[in-house]
Amino acid sequence: MAVTLDEILVADPPHAWRDAGFTVDDDGSCRVGTVRIRLVGRERGTGIVGWSLRGLPGDPAATDVDGVPTTSSTVPPPAPATHPNTVTHVDHVVLLSPDLARTRAALEGIGLDVRRERDGVLGGNPVRQLFLRLGEVILEVVGSPDETGEEPSTLWGLTHTVADIDAAAAALGEHTSPVRDAVQPGRRITTVRHRDLGMSVRTALISPHVRRA
C-alpha cells in the first residue's frame, strides 16, 4: 500500500484561511483535493505542527518521522471542496531538513522513494531538493548538500494548484506577489503574503500542469 498524505495540522485560526479564499468546514478543516488541512489555532503554536499519513508500515502508533510529528491514518480521502480562490489541490509540501541523508533515510524507512533530485540556490546559499510522492501531493525536501545539523526536520510551507492563477491573484489583491513564471515549464506562480491575512504558513498558488500533446 502506498503512503499518502491524509491531513496537515496547521496552527492557524479558521478565519485567516477564509480570508485567503479557502472554504473552511464547521469542524475547522479545509478539504483541498484529497487532503484535509486541519486548523487547530494558535494554542498549538504556529505553522505546520504535524501531519497524518495513510499506509505507514510497521507500528501504526508511529509518532515521528525525522522529527515531524506524525500519526497513522486509515481514514479515506475526503470529497474535495470548492474554494473561492479556485484552489483544486495541494501541489506540494515543503520539508526543511538539517541533514538530508538522515531525512532521506527516515522517509525511505516509511516506504517513500526519492523520484528526483535537483541542486539550486535559496537565499544565496546552495541547496539540494529531493522530490517524493505522497499520493497526489509532491513532498519537496530541501536542505544543504554539504552541511548537517542535529535539529529535527520541519514542515515549512504549502503550494496549492489553482484553476485560475490570474483570478486568484486578482481576488487576493495586495495580499499576493505579482504572478510570475514558475520553475516548472509552462506554469505560473504567486506567493501569498500570508502574514497580512493572519496565516502562519508560507503559502504559494500555482497554475495547473501543462499537458503535453
Please provide the ordered H/E string of secondary-structure elements.
EHEEEEEEHEEEEHEEE
Assess the beta-strand content as a share of residues.
35-45%
Low-pLDDT segments: none
Shape: globular
* Sheet with the most strands: spatial strand order: 8-9-10-7-11-14-13-12
Mean pLDDT: 94
Main sheet makeup: 8 strands, mixed
Q: What's the helical proportion of residues?
A: 10-25%
- End-to-end CA span: 32 Å
Care to describe what's here?
By secondary structure, the protein is mainly beta. It is built from three helices and 14 strands. It has helices spanning 14-19, 100-109, 165-172; strands at 4-10, 29-32, 35-39, 48-54, 64-65, 68-73, 87-96, 116-122, 125-134, 137-143, 154-162, 180-181, 188-192, 202-206. The strands form two sheets. Strands 8-9-10-7-11-14-13-12 form an eight-stranded mixed β-sheet, covered by helices on one side. A six-stranded mixed β-sheet has the order 2-3-1-4-6-5. The chain starts with a strand and ends in a 7-residue tail after the last strand. The mean pLDDT is 94.
